[in-house]
Amino acid sequence: MAKRIDVSGLNAYYGAHKAIDDISMTIEPRSVTAFIGPSGCGKSTFLRTLNRMHEVTPGGRVEGKVLLDDENLYGAGVDPVAVRRTVGMVFQRPNPFPTMSIFDNVAAGLRLNGKYRKSELKDIVERSLKGANLWNEVKDRLNKPGSGLSGGQQQRLCIARAIAVEPQVLLMDEPCSALDPISTLAIEDLIGELKERFTIVIVTHNMQQAARVSDRTAFFNLAAVGKPGKLIEIDETERIFSNPSVQATEDYISGRFG
Ligand SMILES: Nc1ncnc2c1ncn2[C@@H]1O[C@H](COP(=O)(O)OP(=O)(O)OP(=O)(O)O)[C@@H](O)[C@H]1O
Ligand SMILES: [Mg+2]
């Protein structure tokens, strides 16, 4: 199920402003890749090009290729809605549908995608909540609103919603930045479990988190304010944090800038 991502020569723009320049990288299936780098270097923008969300922003434009196994997501005739189903996304702020029940939050994507029998839906919702390590905390209140959960629980609810439709890739943009340390560890543990089934990319400003959860780390940087962000290097996480190839990476991870 999990797929390899192969990016080549990717540029992304907001109108005339080029936000990221000529990015190429390969992301292996069943692995976690962390994106790190200073604010504004294009991590979120690049992440959103991996499921065709970038072009939803007014003026948003992409050049280059993103292959999922062998299919170019930007190829002619590819349906962006289908791409977003295959490549799921979890955002920085947990965003459950506030008026929907916990059950309906998880079922929402499934209902959009097709017809399921009631019993099938129940099974998938249960499996997804278990997959997100939330089932035990909510099984007795599935009909209560999702907004009544704690922040960490809401984020796990959003992860349950994302995995319910069985994506092949899961993109996470700073999924723990609004969470307390305990919820953060719960999400990190969960990421460790989910990588058995999905290809995972996580943006984080937390260097310890990148070191804890990821197999590989990509460091992005800006040459100067107003210039597009570039990929500086990508390597095994252990290597990036012990002996990176580029001085700027070393400076960033040791807190000398950014
Ligand atoms: N909707 C938008 N319209 C115009 N420019 C944007 C938009 N979103 C982002 N940008 C610009 O694109 C560049 C990259 O932004 P992006 O949000 O991808 O950075 P980031 O690395 O995720 O930063 P952070 O760590 O602060 O989240 C920045 O110069 C930013 O101002
Ligand atoms: Mg960002």
From TrEMBL:
Annotated keywords: ATP-binding, Nucleotide-binding, Translocase, Transport
Protein's UniProt keywords contain DNA damage: no
UniProt xrefs under Pfam families: ABC_tran
One term of GO molecular function: ATP binding
GO biological process annotation, one example: phosphate ion transmembrane transport
PANTHER family assigned: ABC TRANSPORTER I FAMILY MEMBER 17
Family annotation (NCBIfam families): 3a0107s01c2
Protein name (Swiss-Prot/TrEMBL): Phosphate ABC transporter ATP-binding protein
Organism: Streptomyces noursei
